[in-house]
């Protein structure tokens, strides 16, 4: 067990998180010149001369986004409303008379407070004119914080339907399709209500693949879904006969209030899992590892992915031991059942030599799931690290001359209902457990990964970084290190 490698993994992970902190993303994406009144966002210029600037936002990470926008635009902002989670207010706004930060959506569920804030936002943007510029900041959690059912649907009717769909197995795409058609603000309607103002939305993505219409249910993104799809989703889960008349009426009316103003609306992703992976690669390189970026859209059950990640490691080790050439390595990697895996390294002599001889850092990201069979405490990242360690130790003879280390952690700093972001595993962890008289199988089968890592080596392998106020899903780091 190498404490140096553990420390390196932590440094690489922390760098991946720092790159997507809301304030850093805004600093890197937004620039303003008070002299020319030119606003530059992600290399696009906007002339604010003779424009009134307003700010609205919703999501778990938008408070720091909005505060940094305040820092940059300063006195340009006339007014703003930002919907944030209960208990998250920092009171750091530069001018509390200008920007209202209002809490709602306790436990990430739409509630009366969130609905009241959304009503305020709608009433405000309906007054905007052609002389106005509306800046919107959105992140994960925005769907619950921007909640306004279409009349005559009540909040309780809407939340009951969404809860039933989720409990029946509807995925996030299906849930958001239904949400958009029974909402008065999602699915591009916020942007439509803001017309004729110019609308620019800055998005921090917490959804695999970064589909902008799915992040916070796309309040400023044109809704291209057919309402029939929403009806079919509800019918798919045998819930259509249970829904109230109010919802049926809205879905069967099959219409939006007006056409979407494509030319007046711009949506820009300023942060995502891709950004974290790039930052992880940069830090790994500084620490003298050869970084290999493989995928930012990893999804699936942890137990299934463990098998594929073990095959991934085995494939690289076989190449490093001289058993295959670079073409065969690429060919074998493409056969792995890891979503989105891409082989981007070239076949130059230097790169081939680095993959064969340097310590490697394989980097992946996404959002996995865990089938819960037990009653223990844990999260998908801690479970992943634990199951991977067991699998890798059982096949340790297949990784001749190499030590393997694995980190799986959430960029939000929270893995499941615990205070850990994730955990680290390694090749000989199981033998070390036996020496410590710890039965790893008991913890795996009971989904009790948190208590395992709390007990094993006094918690040294737990990743504890606290709430980060950002979220671009999870980062997976695999270090393949030649034994000395």
Automatic annotation (TrEMBL):
GO terms for cellular component: cytoplasm. Keywords: ATP-binding, Kinase, Nucleotide-binding, Signal, Transferase. Pfam families: DUF4147, MOFRL. Its EC number is 2.7.1.31. Belongs to the glycerate kinase type-2 family. The keyword Chaperone does not apply. This is Glycerate kinase. It is an enzyme of class 2 (transferase). One of its GO terms (molecular function) is glycerate kinase activity. The keyword Endoplasmic reticulum does not apply. Residues 9-252 form the MOFRL-associated domain. It comes from the Eukaryota. Residues 361-474 form the MOFRL domain. Residues 1-19 form the signal peptide. It catalyses: (R)-glycerate + ATP = (2R)-3-phosphoglycerate + ADP + H(+). PANTHER family: GLYCERATE KINASE. InterPro entries: GK-like_C_sf (IPR037035), GK_N_sf (IPR038614), MOFRL (IPR007835), MOFRL_assoc_dom (IPR025286), MOFRL_protein (IPR039760).
């Amino acid at each position: 067990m190498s404490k140096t490698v553990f420390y390196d993994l932590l440094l690489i992970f922390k760098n991946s998180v720092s790159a997507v902190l809301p304030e850093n993303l805004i600093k890197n994406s937004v620039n303003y010149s008070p002299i020319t009144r030119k606003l530059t966002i992600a290399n696009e210029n906007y002339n604010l001369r003779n424009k009134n600037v307003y700010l609205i936002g919703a999501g778990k990470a938008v408070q720091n986004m909005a505060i940094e926008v305040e820092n940059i635009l300063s006195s340009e902002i006339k007014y703003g409303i930002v919907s944030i989670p209960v208990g998250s207010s920092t009171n750091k706004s530069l001018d509390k008379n200008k920007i209202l930060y209002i809490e709602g959506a306790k436990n990430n569920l739409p509630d009366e407070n969130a609905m009241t804030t959304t009503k305020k936002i709608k009433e405000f943007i309906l007054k905007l004119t052609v002389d106005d510029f509306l800046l919107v900041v959105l992140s994960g959690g925005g769907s619950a914080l921007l909640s306004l059912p279409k009349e005559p649907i009540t909040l309780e009717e809407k939340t009951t339907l969404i809860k039933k769909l989720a409990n029946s197995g509807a995925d996030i795409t299906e849930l958001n399709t239904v949400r958009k058609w029974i909402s008065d603000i999602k699915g591009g309607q916020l942007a439509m209500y803001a017309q004729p103002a110019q609308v620019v939305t800055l998005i921090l993505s917490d959804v695999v693949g970064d589909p902008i219409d799915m992040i916070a249910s796309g309040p400023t993104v044109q809704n291209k879904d057919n309402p029939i799809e929403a009806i079919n989703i509800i019918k798919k889960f045998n819930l259509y006969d249970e829904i109230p008349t109010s919802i049926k009426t809205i879905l069967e009316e099959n219409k939006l209030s007006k056409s979407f103003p494509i030319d007046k609306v711009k949506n820009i992703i300023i942060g995502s899992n891709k950004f974290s992976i790039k930052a992880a690669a940069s830090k790994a390189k500084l620490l003298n590892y050869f970084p290999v970026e493989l995928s930012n859209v990893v999804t699936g059950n942890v137990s299934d992915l463990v098998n594929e990640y073990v095959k991934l490691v085995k494939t690289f080790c076989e190449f490093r031991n001289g058993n295959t050439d670079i073409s065969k390595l690429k060919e074998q990697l493409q056969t792995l059942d890891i979503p989105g895996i891409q082989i981007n390294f070239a076949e130059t002599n230097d790169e081939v030599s680095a993959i064969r001889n340097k310590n490697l850092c394989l980097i992946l990201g996404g959002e996995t799931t865990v089938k819960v069979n037990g009653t223990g405490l844990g999260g998908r990242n801690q479970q992943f690290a634990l199951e991977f360690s067991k699998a890798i130790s059982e096949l340790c003879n297949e990784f001749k001359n190499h030590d393997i280390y694995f980190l799986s952690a959430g960029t939000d700093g929270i893995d499941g209902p615990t205070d850990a972001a994730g955990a680290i595993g390694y090749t000989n962890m199981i033998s070390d457990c036996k020496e410590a008289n710890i039965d790893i199988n008991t913890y795996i089968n009971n989904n009790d990964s948190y208590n395992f890592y709390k007990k094993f080596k006094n918690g040294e392998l737990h990743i504890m970084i606290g709430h980060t106020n950002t979220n671009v899903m999870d980062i997976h780091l695999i270090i393949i290190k030649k034994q000395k």
